[in-house]
Amino acid sequence: MNQNWNYPTKIKFGIGRLEEVAASCQELQITSPLLVVDPGLIRFPMLEQAVSSCRRNGLACKVFTGLKSNPTGDNVNDGVRAFQDGEHDGVVALGGGSALDAGKAIALMSGQQLPLWTFEDRDDNWIQANSDMIAPIIAIPTTAGTGSEVGRASVILDESMKEKKIIFHPRMLPSIVILDPSLTLDLPPELTAATGMDALSHNLEAWCSPIYHPMAEGIAAEGIRLIRTYLPRAVADGRDIEARSQMLVASTMGATAFQRGLGAMHALAHPIGAVYDLHHGTLNAILMPYVLRANRVMISSLLERLCMYIGIDDPSFENFLDWILGLRHDIGIPESLMKVGVDLSRTQEIGQMAFKDPSSLTNPILFSSSEYESIYQDAILGNIDFLSQ
What we know:
With 389 residues, this protein is an alpha/beta fold. The chain has helices spanning 21-27, 45-56, 73-85, 97-109, 189-208, 214-236, 241-257, 264-276, 280-294, 296-310, 317-331, 347-356, 369-381; strands at residues 3-6, 10-13, 33-37, 62-64, 90-95, 137-141, 153-158, 163-168, 176-179. It folds into two domains: 3-183, Rossmann fold (3-Layer(aba) Sandwich); 187-388, Dehydroquinate synthase-like, alpha domain (Up-down Bundle), CATH 1.20.1090. Helix content is 48%, strand content 11%. Helix 2 (45-56) links the parallel strand 3 (33-37) and strand 4 (62-64). Helix 3 packs across helix 4, helix 8 packs across helix 12 and helix 9 (280-294) crosses helix 13. The protein is globular, with a radius of gyration of 20 Å.
């Protein structure tokens, strides 16, 4: 299955292709890469493999692991200092969404004079950046979830505001992506489930978006079909290399498809994750049926069509929702936000933050802050019964 693709960037897919990290650096004329790595990978051989590949080929690489699971502005600033102090000329981001997002933001900020938040994805803020000073990026995902390796943005936590902000620039799109399924084999079942549901949320919200983008729509449909087939297998047997390969592809497809837009799952998951410091994929997984139900009037026909494509008998909104609920149960996703420590104390605040989140703008329905509060409350309390009505 080893292949090279160019969609939307150069992608090197296949087992064992981590060995090509040094050659990829040389292809981009990177002589001194900064490896931005999830701290949890320090004990895994893949990090030593990447470092050895670089040094064996004469590259002066160093490793930066100063990241939180929800990367912060301070993490990015620390990474920029490490980049500049080490006189690096490129970034290799290795890990899950936190490493990929932080690595891209570090590359963006490595030569900027303006502060990070200047480049929040609003209006045309990105044009204020000095594009020539953005370092080249190689992205190597180790989870099958965020798809950040093919994105032009990073989600970074502004700790002073307790708010996740989307930092955007077209040149944040990595120049080379290495998709090596073997790097995902040791991902534990609970993270396989959560990251896989994150990939599903990207494909599904892209499918339901009202934006006209037929190419993204087609990619989303196939991504959902792959996830339906392979996510349960990847959770049940982490060494199933076919399932791992297809989930890694489906994750990349989700982030490619959401050029069409996201929606209320992400509009809610962003503030909840910022306030409670919870895993983004887990939040999307918990929120998914509640948001689908709230969007029902606008998406029923879309989900009927999707049922036919992915192989759900008797296509209907109800049967699609039953599949989602069954999938969540089978792979161990909690049924409610209360199960992960979220309570009702900040309902109004979360509703207002969701209403202001950029992802809300491409939800099939433009919910008010009070409607977001209602969805959020149901998700906290686990009001699943209403879903069958």
